[in-house]
Amino acid sequence: MPSTIALDAMGSDRAPKPEVEGAIQAARHYGVSVLLVGREATIYAELARHPSAAELPIEIVHASEVITMNDKAARAVRSKRDSSLRVGLRLVREGRAAGFLTAGNTGAAMATAKMVLGALPGVDRPALAAVFPTALGTAAILLDVGANVDCKPENLEQFAVMGEIYCRSIFGTKRPRVGLLSIGEEETKGNDLTRQSYQLLKQLPLLFVGNVEGRDLYNGSVDVIVTDGFVANLVRYALKEALKATITRQVGYMLSRSAFTDFKKRIDHTEYGGAPLLGVKGVCIITHGSSNANAIKNAIRVASEFAERRINDKIERELAGSRVPATAGT
Fold first, then answer.
1. What would you measure as the largest C-alpha separation in the chain, in angstroms?
2. Residue 242's beta-bridge partner residues?
3. Can you give the pLDDT at residue 74?
4. C-alpha distances out from residue 44 to 16, 59, 125, 189, 293, Å
5. Alpha helices in the chain (DSSP H)
6. Distances (CA, A) of 295 to 18, 34, 281, 305
7. Over the Cα atoms of the chain, what is R_g?
8. How far apart are CA 196 and CA 115, in angstroms?
9. Smallest Cα–Cα separation from 155: which of 227, 231, 235, 213?
């Protein structure tokens, strides 16, 4: 049967317009059932602008509160107990939805997911995995993109296993190449975290290609890049600037504008949906606050595929099979 996905209808910058339109498109094109979570009157008014949606498997689940982008995550999670974030994730925990999607406050979404769903056995810290384009027209996964700082080597080891499974399951890469972000390719390069993580990753039963540098993030030489959340956030900005600079040097300014535009069209981030929070007991997808209807539609698809392909079962099984240890005090 088609999946049922709970969608935070109040999360995006222009909510609930893109959420409602994206839900309609997903229900129509993918056969997914959608639970629009949020203030009932507001959502109903937007749905009323689409009379044909009455025949689609879309329902409204009322939530009286909204966590905004300006809210402090920890405080909002505690104080807004009837927020669209919390209600939507509770639907997943109760089995009424196969997954949850939000374009809202990332910090609050991660904190709420950890609290409501909990972590999978063998996972100390869930990791947010972002998909980004490469110069070859393919996709690569970078994790963790902000969920964790001050990581231990065992955390990065778990990230590598989860990212590799996600790449295989969603993108069909038979044997993903996994790299560890560092300041040099040599095994001895990097800080203590990188050097210790290298020793753990090379013992895993996956295709570990060793350390990778910033330039490798967009040249298609690696499929999964592992780092901690602090470094990953810096890298995401640097990646965009480095890619623009590289194309400019190669084909000149006028051509580079055209090339970069074509490149963005070929690898449109809205086609990849959102970033999954890997390692929680349930499906939680987080996407950009600026997401349009197409991004919402595809993020719903990703949530549905994540659930249908039982990625969490694979993560739990392979972490146990790889004997990746849990770390004390994380």
1. 62
2. none
3. 86
4. 10, 10, 37, 56, 17
5. 17-30, 40-47, 73-79, 84-93, 106-116, 153-171, 192-201, 229-251, 253-266, 293-308, 311-322
6. 9, 15, 24, 15
7. 20
8. 30
9. 227
Specify burial of residue 204 (Cβ count, 10 A radius: 0-12, 13-18, 19+).
Answer: middle
Q: Which amino acid is at 291?
A: S
Task: State the Cα–Cα distance between residues 63 and 223, nearest whole angstrom.
Answer: 39
Measured in whole angstroms, the distance separating CA 17 from the mean position of its chain's CA atoms is: 22
3-state helix, strand, coil in the chain (%, to 5): 50, 15, 35
Q: Which amino acid type is present at position 21?
A: E
Q: Residue 75: count other Cβ atoms within 10 Å of its Cβ.
A: 11
Residue 113 corresponds to which tokens in the numbers above?
Answer: 């997911």
pLDDT < 50 positions in the chain: 230, 247-248, 251, 253-255, 260, 263, 265-267, 328-330
Instruction: Please state the pTM of the whole predicted model.
Output: 0.86
How far is Cα 329 from Cα 152, in angstroms, rounded to an integer? 11
Query: For residues 309 and 290, what is the distance between their CA atoms, to the nearest angstrom?
Result: 28
Nearest CA among 155, 168, 90, 92 for reference residue 127: 155
Q: Compute the distance between CA of residue 179 and CA of residue 221 in angstroms, rounded to an integer.
A: 9
The pLDDT value recorded for residue 149 is: 72
Instruction: At 184, list the tokens.
Output: 């040099």
Q: What's the pLDDT score for residue 85?
A: 97
Helix axes 106-116, 84-93, angle to 10 degrees: 30
What pLDDT is attached to residue 272? 67
Closest CA to 299 of 48, 18, 68, 59: 18
Q: Which residue has the tokens 């089995």?
A: 95
Query: Three-state DSSP class for 180?
Result: strand
Per-residue pLDDT of 184-215, as tens digits, reads: 777 767 688 999 999 999 999 999 999 998 77
Q: Look at residues 37, 8, 243 and name the one whose alpha carbon lies nearest to residue 102.
A: 8
Tokens describing residue 40: 């009932």
